[in-house]
Each structure stands twice: as structure tokens, then as C-alpha cells.
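Task card 7
Instruction: Convert sequence to C-alpha cells.
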Amino acid sequence: MNVNYDELILLAGGAFLVVWGNWKKTERTKLLSSGIKAEGTVIEIKTNPSSNNVSVGTPVIKFETLNNEWITKEYGFGSSTLRYKIGDSVVVIYDASDAKHFIIDNKQTQLLGPVVMSVGLALIIGAVIYFFVNQYPSL
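Output:
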């Protein structure tokens, strides 16, 4: 059996995406079940240039916990299309034991895990098909 490195890279990348997507989905599910919802405000948009000269905007969110503690933190996920503007109101769900661990409750966080897992699964299936097509070309 001659295994091509391309297939191994696709398998490894697909496996990574499935695991990471599952972790993001699980994180959201845990926060939805045991987290606390709060109203937050976008107070700043940090832009970081990427390698292809496209700026990625990451919102800085400020919200108040049930303990009257103010949390100001850069959100862990940005996008090249600026989804938020300064002053926008957002719903956050934070961990009761660590308020600095939060997500913005929107469609993007709802779909992120399943979409990433689907892409990873597609890579794995593609690598397996590619392997069998090249291994057994007469089939």
C-alpha cells in the first residue's frame, strides 16, 4: 500500500477540524446550560492585518456581571467583514465561575462548531475517496 502524504495531511487536517468544531459546539452548549446571559456593548473594534492584506476586526465587549463586576475583554473570534460597530448592543453568555470566559449569543457562534465539523468530515471523506481512487484505479 502506497500512502500519499497528501492524504495524510487531509486526514490530519480533517480530524483537527472535527475535534476543534466539536470543542466549540460543546463549549457553547455548556455555556447555554449553565452560563449567565448579560447585555454587553461593543466599545472598540481591534483590527489586525492578516497575511493577505485583509483586516480582521475583533470586537472588544464590555458587560456587567450579576456581581456588579464590569468585564471588558476582546472577543476571541473576529471576521474580515465587520459585523459589529462601536456602540452595538450584544447578548453575551458568560461562565458563572469565570466571567472572562464568554461567547456572544448569535447565529455565528451557533453555527461555528457544526460547520467546522462538517468541513473536517468532508476533508476526511475526500481523503479516503482520493486514496481508494488512486490505490485501485481499475474499480
